[in-house]
Specification:
- About 80% of the residues lie in helices and about 0% in strands.
- It has 18 helices and no strands.
- Helix 1 packs parallel to helix 9 and helix 3 packs parallel to helix 14.
Length: about 425
């Protein structure tokens, strides 16, 4: 019990600070704006660290992959399974989010007076064309432009190319790889220091927001949490069972659920996919997945495959669209949300502190003001436990699907009565 409390302590403190800030804002009303500088201080500290954190984290992660040996068939099957399951999660998550509409009834016009949205003109976007839009989204015309929180995707591309080049150079670039790894640790420590101020900063920020908007935004968070719980229950029991059946029929379903409890409990208790890797390795081997696949798929999945984070990306985008009264009725908008959420899930899983990167990615792609970051950052906190459950335990059932692709129908030789 003490261990669980320790793992959840900071999340509990953050939630308490948001609730206290909301209560203060509700009581003070517009006068709560006096606390705005305290919230702005937290935002500015985060914005200062985003660029170096993204660059060093991604470059270091990719540079270190040059030391990993992977069997081609296993890696090909792994990429296919991760892609398909994440895409299914994005589409299903969008359907449920649109159906439940967590921001319904919120007066978004008032919110726009608190946080100004800087969205791109639809006409301007259409004039650029699809290819032109992709070029503008993923690249910039000058190096300094990439070093900005307003251009997260180009920054990610630059970091990925730097990491890839470091890995390809090999021995001669080992000092660069070591520098990137050390710089990543330093950036994460800076983030940790900044997060000590988070309870005060977030509390002050939401006192100001609730003071202007009223308590309806808190109702939006409650609806968002309920929506996520619905997604979690259906995906965990329904889709995981389906994946296990596709992997090995009824025997696969029995094998998975006989060994799913330990990974699930560990994920919920620690809220960490990384901390769940050891028990996931044990459980996947106990199911009967070959050792070489388990030791490849589970660690890799903990970094780049997180269906729970895909759900989170969908809800964050839908939440912002709802708050600002943006149209979500067109097929192209749906495809955009699916695509960005898919990318958010991959980015969040690839690097430490990825939640913030995913949120900045959403803001950058859709042209929102960076000041809306805390609004969707709270969603990460309230869905942390169920998201980790789907992220972590999902990699165990994915290892079964990969075994099916690599070994064929008869891969599961163990008997499960």
């Amino acid at each position: 019990m003490k261990l669980v409390l320790k793992d959840y302590l900071f999340s509990i403190i953050l939630l308490a600070s948001v609730l206290i800030g909301g209560a203060v804002g509700g009581v003070l009303g517009p006068e709560a704006s006096v606390l705005k500088p305290l919230g702005d201080l937290f935002l500015n500290l985060l914005f200062m660290i985003i660029v170096p954190m993204v660059f060093f984290s991604i470059a270091s992660a990719i540079a270190s992959m040059g030391e990993m040996s992977r069997l081609g068939k296993i890696m090909g099957s792994t990429i296919l399974v991760f892609f398909v399951t994440a895409l299914i999660a994005a589409v299903f998550g969008l359907g449920v989010a649109l159906l439940m509409n967590p921001t319904e009834g919120i007066n978004y016009a008032t919110l726009q007076n608190v946080v100004q949205s800087e969205q791109s003109s639809p006409a301007k976007t259409n004039q650029a064309g699809i290819l032109g839009q992709l070029v503008q989204t993923f690249t910039v015309s000058d190096f300094p432009l990439a070093l900005s929180k307003s251009h997260i995707l180009p920054l990610i591309v630059l970091a990925a190319l730097t990491g890839l080049a470091t890995a390809l150079v090999g021995e001669a670039a080992k000092p660069v790889a070591a520098f990137l790894a050390a710089a990543t640790q330093v950036m994460m420590k800076v983030v940790q220091l900044i997060m000590y101020y988070a309870p005060i900063g977030l509390g002050a920020y939401f006192a100001n927001v609730v003071g202007e908007l009223g308590t309806q935004i808190l109702q939006g968070y409650l609806k968002t949490f309920i929506t996520y719980l619905v997604l979690t229950v259906i995906y965990y029991f329904g889709f995981f069972t389906l994946y296990a059946y596709v992997a090995a029929g009824k025997k696969g379903v029995k094998a998975f659920w006989r060994n799913a409890l330990a990974p699930s409990v560990t994920a919920i208790a620690t809220c960490s996919s990384a901390a769940s890797i050891p028990i996931n390795l044990v459980s996947a081997k106990a199911i009967g997945v070959p050792k070489d696949m388990v030791e490849t798929v589970i660690p890799l999945g903990a970094n780049i495959h997180k269906d729970g984070s895909v759900f989170g990306g969908v809800l964050k985008i839908v939440f912002l669209f709802g708050l600002f009264g943006m149209d979500m009725s067109s097929f192209s908008t749906w495809m955009g949300i699916v695509g960005v959420s898919f990318l958010v899930g991959a980015v969040m899983g690839a690097i430490p502190g990825g939640g913030m990167i995913g949120e900045m990615l959403i803001i950058s792609v859709y042209g929102f003001s960076p000041e809306v970051l805390p609004i969707i950052a709270v969603i990460s906190t309230i869905i942390d436990a169920p998201a980790t459950l789907l992220n972590s335990t999902g990699n165990v059932v994915c290892s079964m699907l990969i075994a099916r692709l690599v070994e064929g129908k008869k891969w599961l030789t163990k008997t499960y009565a």
